[in-house]
Design the sequence.
């Protein structure tokens, strides 16, 4: 019925009396890379949680993946439906080797492309090392690999470059853009580095105080006076 | 009716011990497996001192010695292991249980010992058409006094405020500049002091044996899990409930008595997976 | 849990030659020992050691795969022993079937209970398993009509079992070999399982339960299965115990037996599947060496437990593995 890969309609999430996001609607077109920005506490991670089915708070609204209503599915079932997620705080299996854990994630996906993903993300060289023993940058890419394996329809990336140096972030962003294009993965990405996010996103959504403030191509967002006042003006010189 | 009061007596013991577990769990998120053994050590110390200073002297000394042991326990076990997984502390205190039991067995032997109640409390009073030992009422009174005292302390003192805050969220409380280590020494001392107190007053009721601690810790665990691990009110309600069920079970269905507290616990956990008070992880 | 031949992980899962050699040597050693050791007393002690080693292996496997410390595995050990014993008394099933039931029953109990309790915080899990096991102990203690309470009951066994003479199971010489082979096969089987996808998955859940859900796995059933399996292993130990002794007491359900198993698993190091078995060997050697000090045996194991937990968290097997890796030049 719709051409959108992932669609959230009127999504709200409340924690007790606090409304973290309020009737937010977002729709991603196939192959699109969508940047999600906003000041701290704007509700970016909460929106991702609501879309991928992570628990916490009371959530209302509808989430659809390729037209299928997945609002009531568990995070596990949503992953099977094609919605994958990476985390702001590195969220891997420290005691398993790189290959073992990507293999586990790949096994659950329809097309297991563990080798391809390890190769593409530069993890193949130390596939048999324990995740606890590899560098932080490698752990970040491993986190990404766990989400990317099996070529999900949509990838929700919560600050994939958190804690990386500027050059590492740029390299990662380029890689991401290439992979998304060649594997036809739609991406929703939260990133604090404005240069990175504006350079890779096809379109940007701005959240502010739990509501959508603006939505459009990067150039329009940069020029939007409301966005500049609420957010960009303070962080982008 | 007499049976209900007997259940109240046992419940009172459980509360005095369980509250020590709850205090330390709230602050450090660990469980002291040796807590029952401290209760047992307290009982033996009171027994030994009572020979010279009488029951009340034994009570005071036992509480003081046990509180001091608590400070040591906090300094040399809980604090160094604070960064480790909680299971590490569990295993270490489990090891401690063996050591304490063996020490007591070596000093006092493994035969049952009995302690007479103090003369002041040794009589019986008529109740519900029969008689009831004054001493048992004394036990209930002590437990109620401790419960009320603790509740007031937690509610109105500054330290109590920290303890309550920490039992809800230890990390944030720690970050807000509360000196968890000092707080913890105090709180553990109170917990073990109470173990000494309940060990002392257990003397005239239960026969003393080195294994009495391991025996009672199991019911205590049932109490704290039922109560919700870090809740004082939960522990109070659960202790009275489990004490009651345990006692009635022994009177009416002795074969299956041990299953009843567990049945209660299972029921509570099915209805409220986080325990009666529903906090803590 | 069969591996797809095309997955890269299969290459790593090929069983190394050293493991096969170790397995064959271990089995052969078990058959040879009774021929070499003539002292009946030594054989008796060693048989007991091996039976407890099976129990410790079950406890350790749960620690390794799920990070959960069960203080109640004596319950599975004891339930298995009492199942065989009570079947002898009431004659419900042929003993062979009763033995199978004695292993399956604890496993089924553990699975059902596990669906509820593996989700609990690790501490609550430990406390609960202890309380539940103790409840079984009290039942056997107080229900005198059923199984003589504290006095224990003699177990009626047939003269032939699985085609072997019952003496095979009751003479220390032959029973040592039986128990030893059961132990070696158990360890080998669990070791293979730990390397399978199921084994990796449960470790992944132990490490990071949430992420395991986010890569698409259900996380409760696998843990309940590990719990059931470790209960079954404890039950196997209970069966060996009852065949060997032909006598059960409530002591088979008592918490101190669970405690011994934990101590062995910790000393040996549960991070290796074979660690707990090694731990029980060390445990019994220590006990033997303690000699006159055995009077203070509880204090010795208590102190050992404290020292090992704090100073050698991966146990003796961890030290051995670290040494081995150093010799091989720092590879994983």
Sequence:
């Amino acid at each position: 019925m719709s051409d959108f890969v992932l669609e959230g309609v009127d999504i709200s999430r409340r924690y007790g009396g606090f409304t973290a996001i309020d009737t937010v609607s977002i729709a991603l077109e196939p192959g699109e890379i969508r940047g999600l920005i906003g000041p701290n506490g704007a509700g970016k991670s909460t929106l991702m949680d609501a879309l991928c089915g992570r628990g916490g708070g009371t959530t209302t609204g509808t989430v659809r993946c390729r037209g299928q209503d997945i609002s009531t599915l568990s995070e596990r079932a949503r992953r099977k439906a094609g919605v994958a997620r990476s985390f702001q705080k590195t969220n891997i299996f420290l005691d398993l080797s790189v290959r073992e854990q990507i293999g586990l994630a790949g096994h659950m996906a329809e097309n297991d492309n563990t080798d391809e993903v390890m190769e593409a993300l530069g993890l193949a060289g130390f596939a048999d090392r324990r995740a606890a023993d590899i560098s932080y940058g490698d752990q970040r890419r491993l986190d990404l690999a766990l989400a990317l394996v099996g070529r999900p329809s949509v990838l929700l990336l919560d600050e994939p470059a958190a804690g990386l140096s500027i050059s590492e972030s740029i390299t990662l962003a380029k890689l991401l853009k290439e992979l998304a294009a060649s594997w036809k993965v739609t991406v929703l990405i939260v990133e604090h580095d404005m240069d990175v996010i504006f350079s890779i996103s096809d379109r940007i959504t701005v959240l502010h105080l739990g509501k959508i403030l603006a939505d459009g191509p990067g150039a329009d967002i940069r020029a939007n006076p409301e966005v500049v006042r609420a957010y960009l003006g303070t962080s982008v010189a | 009716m007499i049976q209900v009061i007997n259940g109240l007596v046992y419940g009172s013991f459980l509360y005095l011990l369980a509250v020590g577990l709850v205090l330390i769990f709230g602050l450090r998120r660990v469980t002291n497996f040796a807590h029952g053994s401290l209760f047992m050590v307290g009982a033996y110390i009171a027994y030994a001192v009572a020979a010279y200073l009488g029951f009340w002297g034994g009570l005071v000394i036992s509480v003081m010695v046990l509180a001091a042991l608590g400070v040591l326990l906090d300094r040399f076990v809980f604090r160094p292991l604070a960064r480790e997984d909680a299971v590490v502390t569990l295993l270490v205190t489990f090891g401690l249980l063996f050591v304490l039991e063996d020490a007591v067995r070596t000093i006092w032997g493994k035969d049952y010992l009995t302690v007479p109640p103090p003369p002041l409390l040794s009589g019986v009073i008529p109740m519900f058409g029969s008689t009831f030992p004054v001493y048992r009422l004394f036990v209930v009174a002590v437990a109620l006094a401790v419960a009320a005292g603790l509740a007031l302390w937690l509610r109105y003192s500054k330290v109590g405020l920290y303890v309550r805050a920490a039992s809800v969220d230890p990390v944030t409380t720690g970050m807000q500049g509360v000196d968890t280590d000092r707080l913890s020494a105090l709180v553990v001392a109170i917990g073990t002091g109470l173990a000494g107190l309940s060990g002392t007053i257990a003397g005239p009721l239960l026969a003393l044996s080195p294994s009495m601690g391991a025996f009672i810790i199991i019911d205590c665990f049932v109490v704290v899990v039922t109560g919700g691990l870090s809740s004082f009110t939960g522990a109070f309600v659960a202790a009275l409930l489990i004490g009651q069920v345990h006692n009635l079970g022994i009177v009416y269905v002795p074969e299956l008595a041990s299953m009843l507290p567990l049945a209660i616990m299972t029921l509570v956990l099915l209805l409220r997976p986080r325990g009666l008070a529903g906090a803590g992880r | 849990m069969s591996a797809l031949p095309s997955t890269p992980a299969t290459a790593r899962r090929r069983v190394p030659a050293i493991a096969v050699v170790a397995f064959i040597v271990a089995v052969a050693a078990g058959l040879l020992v009774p021929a070499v050791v003539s002292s009946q007393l030594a054989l008796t002690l060693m048989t007991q050691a091996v039976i407890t080693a099976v129990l410790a292996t079950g406890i350790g496997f749960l620690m390794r795969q799920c990070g959960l410390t069960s203080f109640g595995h004596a319950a599975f050990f004891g339930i298995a022993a009492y199942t065989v014993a009570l079947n002898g008394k009431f004659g419900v099933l042929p003993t062979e079937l009763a033995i199978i039931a004695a292993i399956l029953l604890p496993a089924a109990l553990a699975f059902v209970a596990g669906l509820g309790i593996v989700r609990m915080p690790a501490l609550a899990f430990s406390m609960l398993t202890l309380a539940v096991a103790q409840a079984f102990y009290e039942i056997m203690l107080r229900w005198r009509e059923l199984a003589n309470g504290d006095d224990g009951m003699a177990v009626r066994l047939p003269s032939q079992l699985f085609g072997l003479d019952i003496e095979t199971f009751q003479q220390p010489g032959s029973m040592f070999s039986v128990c030893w082979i059961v132990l070696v096969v158990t360890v080998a089987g669990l070791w293979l399982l730990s390397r399978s996808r199921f084994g990796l998955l449960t470790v992944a859940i132990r490490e990071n339960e949430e992420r395991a859900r986010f890569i698409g796995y259900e996380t409760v059933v696998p843990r309940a299965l590990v719990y059931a399996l470790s209960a079954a292993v404890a039950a196997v130990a209970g069966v060996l115990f009852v065949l060997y002794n032909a006598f059960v007491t409530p002591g088979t359900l008592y918490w101190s037996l669970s405690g011994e198993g934990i101590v062995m698993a910790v000393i040996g190091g549960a991070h290796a599947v074979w660690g707990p078995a090694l731990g029980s060997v060390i445990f019994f050697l220590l006990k033997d060496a303690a000699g006159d000090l055995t009077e203070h045996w509880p204090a010795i194991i208590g102190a050992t437990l404290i020292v090992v937990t704090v100073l050698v968290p991966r146990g003796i097997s961890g030290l051995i593995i670290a040494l081995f890796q150093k010799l091989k030049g720092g590879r994983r």
Q: What stands out?
A: Residues 20-209 of chain B form one domain.
